[in-house]
Amino acid sequence: MKFTGSYLFNADAPKVWAALTDPKSLQQCIPGCEGLKHQGSNVYEAELTVGVGPIRGKYRAKISMQDQVQNLSYRLIIQGSGTTGFMNGDAVITLQESNGKTTVTVDADSQAGGPIMRVGQRLMGSVGKTMMDRFFSCMQKSTD
Fold it and tell me: What is the pLDDT of residue 139?
């Protein structure tokens, strides 16, 4: 499942970069995040509760930030599994600053399987996009 999005921040690229790579900001803004532990080398372990339609499940996810070019871009890799299946994702996040404002562009691809997909397959696209929008809306507020 592919997701794309573009989000305008009223802050310069270094401030947006700092928020997008700060564990405290990430934990506060990742929908359903109940804990985030640093594992070293830009790798984190997260505990999440995610719901798709009537199915809710707890997930343990490994979140890795790779190919970082400070204040410009990075690749985010998420591998998670839990009581209702698995979810994996890969996203390229790009920052572009203009006149003190920064546009963050996301190009992502995700896969999910297990009971969550059997029941919520039709909902996955809208749930994924909604979660991404909620995350970036929270991040926008944290940089204002």
Answer: 94
Sheet hosting strand 73-82, strand order edge to edge: 2-9, 101-113, 85-98, 73-82, 55-69, 43-52, 33-40
- Would you give the distance in Å from CA 57 to the centre of its chain? 17
Collapsing DSSP to helix, strand or coil, 29 comes out as helix
| Residue 42 or 118, more confident | 42
Asked whether the beta carbons of 112 and 87 are under 8 A apart, the reply is yes
What is the four-CA torsion angle of 79, 132, 13, 101, rounded to 10 degrees? 170
**24-82 tens-digit pLDDT:** 999 999 988 999 999 988 999 999 887 766 667 788 999 999 999 999 999 999 998 88
Q: Is 30 helix (H, G, I), strand (E, B) or coil?
A: coil
d(CA 56, CA 31) in angstroms, rounded, equals: 13
Mention every residue, 6+ apart, whose C-beta is less than 8 A from residue 57. 49, 50, 51, 82, 83, 84, 85, 116
